[in-house]
Amino acid sequence: MKKPELLLPAGTLSGLKTAFLYGADAVYAGAPEMSLRTKSKFPLEEMENGISFAHNLGKKVYLTLNLFSHNKDIARLENFAKTIKVLNPNGIIISDPGIFQYVKKELPQIPIHISTQANVCSWLTVDFWKNLGASLCVLGREVSFSETSEIREKCKDIRLEVFVHGAMCISYSGRCLMSAFMASRSANQGACAHSCRWKYKSKLLLKEELRPGEYLEMEEDDNGSYILNSKDLCLMPQLDKLISIGIDSFKIEGRNKSEYYVAQTARTYRKAIDDYFSNSNNWRPDKYMQELITLQNRGYTLGFFNGIPGQESQEYADTASKSNYRNAGVVKDNADGMLTIELRHKLKRGNEIEILSPFKFEPVKIVLNEIYNKDNDRLVEELAPGKIHQSVKIPIASDISIFPEDTVVRIRII
């Protein structure tokens, strides 16, 4: 049995490097000049550097062009094709049939992946895309495990990818109109305002069929409700089942998430996959879930894995994170017994931080007895990030080589 590819989001060049440092086999990314993703923070020059970096490691990069096109977008495709020829990514992620046809003609050497936004939910649809020349289909999050198993059985000659972790859309993935309607921001072009996470108050009128003209009023109290707020997808408890049926790629959602999110999901799913192939009979999800709950999350759900989800997949009370861990910073240098950490959260003397070494699964816990301002080497009581990231230097007694550049640090908020 072949190991599934572990596919991480890369919203920035640093995110790309973090993903590979912690065990990703591939990343997916988009740049404004190419993918038309309005929130991308990946300039073209950095994209070129990132793809070169990945290929030197023997890793892969897939670029997204998964919008549904309007007439205004077509003129930009010629420049997109020219750019792709220069960058030479390992594949392009597409959802629009017209764009599929264009790319197939202009870039015949580039593998095409069918995006989750195409809502591929049956083996017949997978077969359709395979016959058109697609090399991989990303199954919709709405597909159950039993359906996924049948698709795998009937479609052996095309790679299949499933989302295993990340935010869940209240509508078909990326196709919700709420954001465009309420905030003039298109979810399909990467600008979703997450209207489903907002707090709503509802007022309903009910009419019983034998009482014409009589209405019963139901109204929420002043507290309101997050009635459209889904918990986050996490299929770690069922990862062994997905491996056993031969899914080719496990995808993590979140191109706008922090380095901590990328590092933590990469290292945890990497460890879980490797452990399964080392000893599948004794594989259990518990220790991996203990790490995943440290991520900021709305609570976890299996989504549609077992079929249509019930109300347990929603969080009606709030959208606050269930985790009390935060991204503390990123290692930028390790020399002379000192770690230089670029801050993402305020650190105080006496705080305990946890460093996530790429070379061991257990976090390394360190109490900050000394903190030095990196800019002037002065001992300080505390330091916080500003508009320009502040950096601290801390002494490390243990082997400092296990904390290379881009190692991620977290802190627990009491």
Poorly predicted runs are none
Class by helix and strand content? alpha/beta
The CATH topology of the largest domain turns out to be TIM Barrel
Q: What is the terminal separation in angstroms?
A: 44 Å
Name of the CATH homologous superfamily of the largest domain: Aldolase class I
Helix content range: 25-40%
- The number of distinct helices, counting runs of at least 4 residues, comes to 12
Give the tally of structural domains: 2
Largest sheet: 8 strands, parallel, barrel
Mean pLDDT: 89
What is the correct CATH architecture of the largest domain?
Alpha-Beta Barrel
Extended strand count = 21
In what range is the share of β-strand residues?
15-25%
Shape: globular
Gyration radius, rounded: 23 Å
Q: What spatial order of strands do you see in the largest sheet? A: 1-2-3-4-5-6-7-11
The CATH class name of the largest domain reads Alpha Beta
Layout of secondary structure:
Layout: E1 5-9, H1 13-21, E2 26-29, H2 32-35, H3 44-56, E3 60-65, H4 71-74, H5 77-87, E4 91-94, H6 97-106, E5 112-114, H7 123-132, E6 136-138, H8 145-154, E7 159-166, H9 178-183, E8 203-206, E9 216-219, E10 232-234, H10 239-244, E11 249-252, H11 259-278, H12 286-292, E12 300-301, E13 325-335, E14 338-343, E15 347-348, E16 352-356, E17 364-367, E18 372-373, E19 382-383, E20 391-395, E21 408-412
Parallel strand pairs: 1-2, 1-11, 2-3, 3-4, 4-5, 5-6, 6-7, 7-11, 10-12
Antiparallel strand pairs: 7-10, 8-9, 13-14, 13-21, 14-20, 15-19, 16-17, 16-21, 18-20
